């Protein structure tokens, strides 16, 4: 049972010191001396007491909660839900400010608006106003672009009291820091912490700033907003600079101390006593000695020393660790690294072959474990055909130099420069090239060998390498389409094509000019057209040349994979429409087989290509010798595609069988098809249906009297039979029965909604918000209406009262006049009668 | 009314006299006009003649002149056609006015005129049928067809109990049936009249039947059969009830009372056509539309049983097509087909997966095999045989087979031993280790109950899991994964082809950069010893063989 009102009042009065025990005269005197101040304090205290005793001043729960323990927020019970009086008066006030003027202005036209800056803004002081006006004036005068951050710098600087008004003044910040933090800091804070704190406080200041700016009710003009934005961005800029400078300072400071720290560390590990540091530095960096001892020596308290120690340790942690410089690698290491790179690529290829998604994390060459693993078995690389025991000075087999010519950027740059310089030094090099002219005939035949040999020595030789074509021009237009390419290559003999292509690639290397990328892309696309064109031509171009061109395309498609792939797919589309592979198409298909990894589970170019080949084999029948020959080629190509992934191609078996039964066979073609069969049998030797796949081929082979392959196939079939087992495809773990355990919520809050359906939960929230807003708006409107009605009534009353007043005044006036006149009259009358 | 009669006679007389003079004038006129073969002139003349005839009976002799013009061989087509058109107008006017009907008590001259008119009419019909409809010029054919049908319509409308058999329609149909080649006229007839009007259809059925039965020469019969087939095939929807037959050119004929008579008419026409013996292609086309277009026309589809059974026994694509007809009879008419599954099993041959009727067959096969009461041995045979076929089949075939097999496994759990068979007995296990095994399945066995397929495994599908096409390979993997899905909707897997597979990939733009092989091979066509490698040699073979 709470004490009664009266008791509570008494106690609170006593608490506030308004009533109390009787005071002595002395005390009263003292009190009187305090005077005015005291009285005001007393008034305030009384007001607060009165307020707290007014039951209508605070809104509480309608009835207090019965059991405190049902809620997990015990302070709920005593919470004041609102102050109706205060809010009401506030609302009234606000309405008076906004609604009333509006109401008064209603149905009125004209008037004078005071548009002077800040005139209607009560929050602006006189100084602010003049300042703002001055600012505006200066801006007008300048007439420059307001939004130009750079310009604004060298414009007029606003000053106040002779000091610059820059927000980010370092000195100012320092002041601030000194004021706010100085008291708390123990003075021994080192630079870093202070800096940090300052930065934090700066940030805090920054955060506070917009809030302050928001306070004025007045809506900001666009110019002002923009100005603010500019100021802010400038501020940020300066801040960044400042921070950078600070960091720089900090680092320098730390750097200065580095040798000492290092020495200290070393001393610490070796337990070697450090020569005593100079006394000035002893405060800062004194790691050589046990900090406890040092603290004792210095006469500091233990806590202080510990604290300092912790700071130092933290500082050390934040310091970047020095890295050892990279050691020059030995040849073995290089070879090993190369082997590792290849192995990694091979791993990736295997992943693609299995059709596993390449996740980003897998792409990163990071885990140490893996590297250890690689180092553990170096010979693994050999398994994949890349020998790790490489002869010194040469590149691993299979990786072409031609490629590095383009791929390694730095190498390329020097390369192409060399090429360009070569062109200028043409004369001097002429001798050496002339000397090689003798073997021109020879060179044509062994072009690739020579190329690799010469290029391996240095990039400069690339042009000299093809001495055979020294009569060729050194500069060419970069053809952007096949037509242009034909024009450019018109006078070039076919054998020289690779050289010319190489020169064009060097001349238009992507590093030399921004446009060269596109040029080379188009050029490569034209080359793709060209290999098809060359193969279709009669007589067909020598295969060596086409091969060299394919290799060029390959190396370029590393740089521009998308465009070239798109172009090749165009060719595939044409083949899809015709379904009649010309030698040109076959060349393209061959090129696809070397340029792209054919073992991938899915590949944007390879998959359509092999589907096209399979379609051709599936839908045609060998009616001509040409068909049989094309079939042999496509078969071999398909098997070449599948050399790693060993995927099964049903159409190949079908077509080969048909070919072997066909009447258009030549001995060479029989041999080719038989070879295909054997290759296929080797590739697919592990497939479970080997017997079913290859048994139908026995009869045709027998018919063609191919005894040796026949025997081989029979052996393989026998082997397959031996290894055949009943299928066991379903060693799966039994699926667990679906469980329906109710989902428990940790720390369940009954006031919260746990809707698992996110959309629905959002919708509910939105609906609630809408309802609340709507209620609020309606309430406001209602209050507005009340206010308006009240105001109107008041107005009317005023008016009525004024009228009444006036009326009364008039009547009284008239009465008075009448009375006066009557008196006058009476007086006159009396005078007359008296007369 | 004697007065009017007399006047009529007098009129007729006068007309005849006038006609005579007219004719003389006419002849002179023709003589006069013929030397100058001015088309414009002749055409205006024709129009004038026509209007004169329509004006009064006096000018009836103009009909003969017009007939002359129409009949003239080698004359200008346009004028001839124009003349026929005007003649048609004339005759249809006469027919509708009843001027060509004799009635009792008519005066003699009147009868003579009518007789004369009838003769001219017959002459006109002959011209249209023999000269125009059989001509090589499509325009003439088309005109003749339209005009004849117009006349048929007029005739039918003019007389209450019009006997169609006497009219031009039977002759028209017969002429059409005897037209060689792909007659445009026949098509037009089918399109414009046969499909539109039920009465025309009714009488055409009759005509077809009669003309087929009356002709027994082999050469003509084949022509007749193919032509009648093309006419009959053009009909797509059969009437469902009597109410459907309200599209009539003229009034309904007497026999044309019930749906059953209508249908039996159609049935007889069909039977007559089928009886003539169809070529393979014709048979296929008939079977192709059998259950939708043909069977509904039959009063008793059972009549077709022999035809279907024969077709089913032909083998190949014909059998595949006959299957749907048989299914129709079996499901609708309770047909009992002995050893149906044996036959069905025999249809699974090498060509099945390459056939263009593949999807159709699979739809039916899925229906036939949908029963869960089929013996597991039989189902296993089907599974094994189809997987064997899929091993050599195109991707589209594999794509159809694999989900089907999945569904069957799901339906017949006894067959799942084909996927997973643990050998537990140590003896057999040892034997297996030492000697391996052969496939117990006998591909040559005809009876699906005896193939021993259930003892076998589907190694073929496992092989297809490494198919060159990624999608096919992935699909084949469903067999070795857990069977959690209830069933695959076979319909989604049926209509695939090489082109569809290619379109899917080549049709879209590159989204990701394609991976490029990291290693540039040193040799592609050439080999180490400065000669051509295997691919290079093959390439030269290709180039040389061109």
From TrEMBL, chain A:
It comes from Lophiotrema nucula. Residues 203-214, 358-369, 399-429 have a biased composition (Acidic residues). Residues 1-45, 69-255, 265-284, 296-438, 792-835 are annotated as: Disordered. Residues 69-79, 126-140, 215-244, 299-313, 320-357, 792-829 have a biased composition (Basic and acidic residues). The keyword Nucleus applies. It is found in: Nucleus, Nucleolus. GO terms for cellular component: Noc4p-Nop14p complex; small-subunit processome. The keyword rRNA processing applies. Belongs to the NOP14 family. This is Nucleolar protein 14. One of its GO terms (biological process) is maturation of SSU-rRNA.
Automatic annotation (TrEMBL), chain B:
Residues 12-32 have a biased composition (Basic residues). It comes from Lophiotrema nucula. Residues 319-476 form the CCAAT-binding factor domain. This is CBF/Mak21 family-domain-containing protein. One of its GO terms (biological process) is ribosome biogenesis. Belongs to the CBF/MAK21 family. One of its GO terms (cellular component) is Noc4p-Nop14p complex. InterPro entries: CCAAT-binding_factor, Noc4. Residues 1-41 are annotated as: Disordered.
